[in-house]
Amino acid sequence: MSFDRMHLLDLESLSREEIIHILDTAESFREISEREIKKVPTLRGFTVVNLFFEDSTRTRISFELAEKRLSADVVNFSKSTSSVQKGESLLDTVENLLAMKMDIIVMRHGASGAPHYLAERVPASVVNAGDGKHEHPTQGLLDMLTMRHHLGDLSGRKVVIVGDILHSRVARSNIHGLTKLGAEVVLSGPPTFIPPKPESLGVSVDYDIGRALKGAHVVNVLRVQKERQEGGLMPSMRAYARDWQVGLKHLELLAPDGIVMHPGPMNRGVEIAQEVADGPRSVILEQVTNGLAVRMAVLYLLSEARKKLERGEIEEKPLEKSEVLA
Questions:
Q1: What DSSP designation does 23 have?
Q2: In the sheet that 184-188 helps form, which strands lie side by side, from edge to edge?
């Protein structure tokens, strides 16, 4: 199995085999991060630009560290100090960067579909680091890598995603990836936080959080995204914490090997209790560690695909558009 795509834009368009191949490749890069000398020459000669139009801590730093450990030349774009503030368009910004011979663009943007728009128009490889409410594919991959370390094969495992699913690109990437790996995915949260027609995604919904968590192998707790809220979806943060916060009592409902995850940043005391976030079942910091391995793997696989394309060994596949972008 090989990964012959020029871009990583979502998990919806990937096959089960491609997802497993990325996860298996990430395992080898996880081992590299445990060595005394962590740098390898894999991306020597490649230039990568981190194009972040939204604030980020874990994702941006993780990508930058992955790029540097692979020996790439790295450029960090800051919206606040760029010509975007003077009205420059997204495409003009990127075309100017490409004129400086950038090979890979890692992009986070508030508009769903922005990385797809870019990938259709530029010769560089594009990695989606989160677009609007659409997807966050590397987060979905690092979540699955973390689950595999604790649970092995994910087929038949029960994964419950709790919280603000409607606004969560992380939830969508998890759903697309986990269902392809055979996991049972259950969504739980206030009715106003559940997307329309969730059954079309191959998942079930349970509005009783206690019932949803019974026997679960994973509970993935999502942040309440106040910055994306529309009026009337939630009465107050206090009311949300009262009814939907994952606390110690909920851990007793999980399977004996059940784990607690959170993509960060956390609102401690709102969607997750502090004792749970810092407790023995929490693998939240392990997710961060696995994020570095996954991003190294993605960058490596894209660079190898670009080399094959230049040698004429493969042809570039046409982009597939998901429903949210249609």
A1: H
A2: 204-205, 184-188, 158-162, 218-221, 259-261
- Strand residues in the chain grouped as ranges (E): 47-52, 73-78, 104-109, 125-131, 158-162, 184-188, 204-205, 218-221, 259-261
Encoded tokens for 139: 């987060």
Task: At 281, list the tokens.
Answer: 């079942």
Query: Model pTM greater than 0.85?
Result: yes
Given the structure tokens 């949803």, which residue do they identify? 212
Pair 36, 44: CB distance under 8 Å: no
149 neighbors 286 (Cβ within 8 angstroms) = yes
Q: What is the pLDDT of residues 229-265, one digit of tens each?
A: 555 566 688 889 999 999 999 999 999 999 999 999 9
- Reported residue count of the chain is 326
DSSP-assigned states of every residue in 215-273: T-SEEEEPP--GGG--TTS-S-HHHHHHHH-B-HHHHTTS-TT-EEE--S---BTTTB-
Decide if 26 contacts 294 (C-beta within 8 A).
Answer: yes
CA atoms within 13 A on the CB side of 264: 18
In this structure, what DSSP letter does residue 8 have? B
Q: How far apart are CA 162 and CA 177, in angstroms?
A: 17
